[in-house]
Amino acid sequence: MLGVLAGDRLKPEWLRPWVDSADVVIAADAGADFVVAADRVPAVLVGDLDSVSEKTRQIVPLVAEHQEQESSDCDKLLAHVRSMGSESVTLCGAEGRRIDHMVATLGSAARSDLRVTIAYEEMIAYVLRGPVDIRLAHQGLVSLL
Fold first, then answer.
1. Is 15 exposed, middle or buried (0-12, 13-18, 19+ CB in 10 A)?
2. Rounded to the nearest 5°, which phi and psi values hold at 134?
3. 3-state secondary structure the chain
4. Which pTM was predicted?
5. What does the pLDDT average to over 32-50?
6. What residues form DSSP beta bridges with 44?
7. By C-alpha distance, which of 84, 86, 73 is closest to 27?
8. pLDDT tens figures, 82-97
9. Residues 6+ apart with CB under 8 A from 103
10. What are residue 88's DSSP bridge partners?
11. How many Cβ atoms from other residues are within 10 Å of residue 143's Cβ?
C-alpha cells in the first residue's frame, strides 16, 4: 500500500513508478494533487481536505473526510491504512519546505503500529522498533534516530 503526502518536493516522474507499483494508493489531502499531476488517480483521499483542489477531489473514487484537527493528515492516512486491514505502508511526499511537517510525519510514523517505510527522493527510511541488529552486505551509510 502506498500513502502519498503533500510534501512539496514530489516530482511526477519520480512519483509515477511508486504509484504504478502499488496495489492501493491512498493520498492525504493535497497529496492527491501530486498523484493526479503524475497522471494517476488515488483510490482513496483522506484528511481534512483543506488543501486538495476541487478538481482532484471530484475524480477520486473514495473520499474519507475527517475535519477534526487533533491529528495530522498523515495520522489520518495511517489510520485509514490500518482500517483497510493492511499492516504496512510506504509513504511518499514526506519531504518539503516545512520542517514542522517533516518532523510531524516522522512522529506519526513512529507512533503507528504499521510497518512504515518512507521513500525519499534520495533514500529509503524504515521505522524500526525493538532491538535492531544491522549488518551491511557492503559498505554503506546507516543513520539511526
1. buried
2. -105, 125
3. CEEECCCCCCCHHHHHHHHHHCCCEEEECCHHHHHHHCCCCCCEEEECCCCCCHHHHHHCCEEEECCCCCCCHHHHHHHHHHHCCCCEEEEECCCCCCHHHHHHHHHHHHHCCCEEEEECCCCEEECCCCCCCCCCCCCCCCCCC
4. 0.90
5. 95
6. 26, 62
7. 73
8. 999 999 999 999 988 8
9. none
10. 115
11. 6
Contact 119, 34 (CB under 8 A): no
Burial 108-132, CB ≥16 within 10 A → b, else e: bbeebebebbbbeeeeebebeeeee
Q: Which residues pair with 65 in a beta bridge?
A: 47
The C-alpha cell 524500526 sits at 128
Strand-pair category, 88-92 with 62-65 = unpaired
